[in-house]
Amino acid sequence: RNTERINYLITELLNCARPPKLDMQSFDIHKILKNVLDTAQPKISLKKIKVITKFTAKPPTIEIDREQIERAFLNVVINAVEAMSKKGKLIIFTEHDGELFVVKIQDTGRGIPEEDIMKIFDPFFSSKRDGVGLGLSVCYGIIVSHGGIIEVKSKWKKGSIFTVTLPMKQKIERERERERVK
After folding, report:
1. CB-based contacts of 173: which residues, under 8 Å, 6+ apart?
2. What is the pLDDT of residues 38-74, one digit of tens each?
3. What global pTM score does this model have?
4. Where are the alpha helices (DSSP H) in the chain?
5. Helix (H) or strand (E) holding 49
């Protein structure tokens, strides 16, 4: 188990230092979010957390690296679950905002102290007793490498909302076309 943990930490350190090359393909973001929830289900069930999904009626296909985006969303979901006591609520919203696709992950956990908000995406910052502080830093790198943004709003003892905004396929294709022209 210790060997697996060390391998995981080394991989996360390398991902922080130099994010892996992205394998961009078209995917249904809702399927990815459902996979993330299935993966996190044992922890969700253990704490009897109620999961509510409010997905847009027709999800767009987004060009992303499925493995990396799934890793980023799983990290945010696991952090949300760990921040909640028993019988909390995890709500995942998706919506279109022009050329952007927005995913909001909201929890009813303990929240993040105001003085920590600016540091949560920094490598090695953790408020967990046994945390290494690489998870949200890696998330940040993955989202930014996709041309997206990750933000957080939190109220102490009320919960947090992580908002991930990703460009839809057309925007990414336009940016690639501009790079080819240069």
Report:
1. 63
2. 999 999 999 999 999 999 987 777 899 999 999 999 9
3. 0.79
4. 2-17, 29-46, 66-83, 114-117, 135-145, 169-181
5. none
